[in-house]
Amino acid sequence: MTMLEIDEALAAWRSRLTAIADNLLWLQNDSTYKMLSGSGATHVRAAGATARRVDPALAPMQTIFERFSVLQTTIERADELRRSMPALFGAEQRLAEIRHVLFGRSIQLAVSAAPSAQRSLLSGAQGVEQRTPDEVLAAMVTEFATARDAVLAVEHAWRDLAEGVDRAEDQIQRFPANAQSGIQRNLQEIRDSLGTDPLGALDNLRKRVEPELARFSRMAAAAAKTRQDLEQAHARLDQLVALHREILAAEAEAKAKVAGFHASSPPAGEERFKRLREWLHQLDLRCTEGASANVETGLRNWNKGAEELASEESRARAAIQTALETRRELRGRLDALKAKARAWRVAEHAEMSDLARQGEQLLTTRPTNLEHAAAAVALYATMLNAKKMQKRGSE
């Protein structure tokens, strides 16, 4: 190994030691770590799931600090050997010493006592292991990550619990009283344990409270949708009733204006509307009782019935409008033919005048015989064309 490689290795170790110091200081000053480790003003004695994770995770922290000190001492020794490197004689020996310090098993670490079966009368309470700096660092990195993750898990758990409990309290206010009691009991258990066992409390919140909240929220959403669907059904029924009244009025008008009128698709009877109204009232009662799923099924069937009724009413309206439109169309056609007759100066001819009066009389008489009126208008049109041809011939 060259001197340049030694210098690069020393520089890398200085950077690592700085990072280690910064991260250990950060963890030491973390408020959650202080509470869990007892190094702050408030000591939280972890219990339950939190204790099972935190206690073994934080136990090696004192060892990490001690090994950090050992690492610092080791790298400082290598640094000192490098600074006192002889120019000529003894340089190779010094280089070997530095290599051993940096890359060899140059660190002695006290380890736990051997198992009882392996101990002799002269065994000490602790043994000693030889480790390289990289091996010591690797163990420290793993132990620090475990401690850090445990502390952050508790910190996040407290934060999530504060938000989750508040959110749950807000949500259950909208639930029925019988649903609130069970969730309130679970919430109280969570409040009682969140100080010493936030991980367990968070697990309970997610497994016992939040699923219930989600279930009741779905039920509440389903009930709200059912109420909205019922409102739409009432609005639809009102529209159907209004349409029916318009159709009945149009039917009365058609009977008054068109002789012998009989709709090919008559309007629905009042009994149909009565049955729809009573059916919807029963669905309203079921919704009040909380049977949203049954109400939705009933509403689908009700809407089918309303759709069938709407289709029948639309056909009835079309049949009635056809009769009234035919009468209006005949009147409009006769007026147009009379205008042409005046333009061609044949309107005053006796036969044209008589036919016009006959057609007007048929179309203004109530009820109008559409067959006779149509025949009169057609005859007027035929006579007008004949007069037109005669006039062109005489010219």
Task: Describe the model.
By secondary structure, the chain is mainly α. The protein folds into 3 domains: 3-111 and 127-172; 223-322; 324-394. The chain is 78% helix and 3% strand. The protein is built from 12 helices and 2 strands. It has helices at residues 3-29, 31-37, 48-58, 61-83, 91-103, 133-172, 177-193, 198-257, 270-289, 292-343, 350-364, 370-394, and strands at 107-111, 127-131. Strands 1-2 form a two-stranded antiparallel sheet. Helix 3 runs antiparallel to helix 6 (133-172), helix 4 runs antiparallel to helix 6 and helix 6 (133-172) crosses helix 8. The longest helix has 60 residues, at 198-257. The protein is elongated and about 150 Å long. It starts with a helix and ends with a helix.
Provide tags for this entry.
single chain; 395 residues; mainly alpha
What is the overall number of helices? 12
Q: What is the helix/strand order?
A: HHHHHEEHHHHHHH
Strand content: under 5%
The overall number of domains is 3
Largest sheet: 2 strands, antiparallel
The termini sit apart by 130 Å
SSE order and pairing:
Blueprint: H1 3-29, H2 31-37, H3 48-58, H4 61-83, H5 91-103, E1 107-111, E2 127-131, H6 133-172, H7 177-193, H8 198-257, H9 270-289, H10 292-343, H11 350-364, H12 370-394
Antiparallel strand pairs: 1-2
Helix pairs in contact: 1-4, 1-5, 3-6, 4-5, 4-6, 6-7, 6-8, 7-8, 8-9, 8-10, 9-10, 10-11, 10-12, 11-12
